[in-house]
Design a protein that fits this description.
Blueprint: E1 2-6, E2 9-14, E3 18-20, E4 23-25, E5 36-45, E6 49-72, E7 75-98, E8 113-115, E9 120-123
Antiparallel strand pairs: 1-2, 1-9, 3-4, 5-6, 6-7, 7-8
């Protein structure tokens, strides 16, 4: 399994991918499309062909609380809890690239997306992922066959 993440969000995730020149290329259905915006930037690779780019826009939503002092001359000080949502958008320009019409030598990465410019891409073993809310937090060990008995 491969994952790409940026600004705390997983922007692409797949069990099937293509690796070329050390880059993991994600199939189009692996992308979380809400994060991707077309870019006008293009480049050309000698053996892969014309390359298009995407910008990533990931919004981090953080909740925080503030105690506010509401005092007036006619009443004692009153403190109340005010909960705010802070939304912070982060834009990473031209950090995802795709070959929509590659040359024949690169046909296997057609429409697949790879990343750079700070986007974290890694291969992940799905058996090691721990999700919040799991009722059982067991350590998984490989099955090694039947225990041996002495005769």
């Amino acid at each position: 399994m491969a994952q790409a993440s940026w600004n705390g969000a997983i922007v692409a995730e797949t069990k099937t991918f293509v690796t070329v020149e050390g880059n993991i290329y994600f199939p189009p259905e692996a992308l979380k499309k809400d994060y991707f915006k077309d870019s006008d930037h293009t480049s050309v690779c000698g053996w892969k062909g014309s390359c298009n780019y995407y910008n990533l826009n990931v919004v981090a939503n953080e909740r925080f609380a503030v105690f506010v002092n509401q005092s007036s001359s006619s009443s004692p000080e009153t403190w109340f809890l005010n909960i705010f949502n802070q939304v912070e958008g982060k834009l990473n320009t031209n950090c995802a690239f795709v070959y929509k019409n590659p040359k024949p030598a690169a046909i296997k990465i057609k429409d697949h997306v790879a990343f750079w410019k700070g986007v974290k891409v890694e291969q992940v073993d799905p058996d090691t992922i721990t999700k919040w809310g799991d009722n059982e937090n067991k350590i998984k060990t490989p099955v090694q066959g039947k225990p041996q008995t002495k005769k």
